[in-house]
Write a structure and sequence with these properties.
- The longest helix is centred in the C-terminal third of the chain and has 13 residues.
- It is elongated, with a radius of gyration of 15 Å.
- The chain is α+β, with helices and mostly antiparallel strands.
- The mean pLDDT is 92.
């Protein structure tokens, strides 16, 4: 089974006008741009002034280690487990691994669900 590491930051999910007020060198700053929007996930303390909409109080964990691209169903299994317990997620994938955010109010319950499913939960 996979190992889960809680992240000690509390996050916000935002839509922004642009990334001019975002320091991309800060840890745990995730951006996504499409033809329709610019999104930002960042620690609450780093919400830029040009944020158009902000949804606060998300907490994250990451799947530890570097995940090979041939691995299939990692996010699907975790999201299904959490969905069975009415816990919504916001997922972010990087080159190395996946990060999963839940609302802070659901976070400890999410970790417990994963622990009961035999995931190893590291101390934060």
């Amino acid at each position: 089974m996979l190992t889960i590491k809680p992240i000690t930051e509390e996050f916000a999910i935002c839509q922004v006008e642009d990334y001019s007020q975002v320091n991309l060198e800060n840890p745990f700053v995730f951006t996504g741009a499409t033809d329709e929007e610019k999104s930002l996930v960042c620690p609450i303390a780093l919400i830029p002034e040009n944020a158009l909409t902000v949804d606060k109080h998300w907490t994250a964990f990451r799947i530890e280690g570097v995940l090979d691209f041939s691995l299939i169903g990692i996010l699907s299994k975790i999201s299904s487990l959490l969905a069975e317990h009415n816990i919504g997620i916001f997922a972010i994938s990087t080159y190395n691994t996946d990060y999963i955010l839940t609302k802070t109010a659901d976070f400890q319950r999410a970790l417990q669900v994963l622990k009961e499913a035999k995931y190893t939960i590291l101390e934060s």
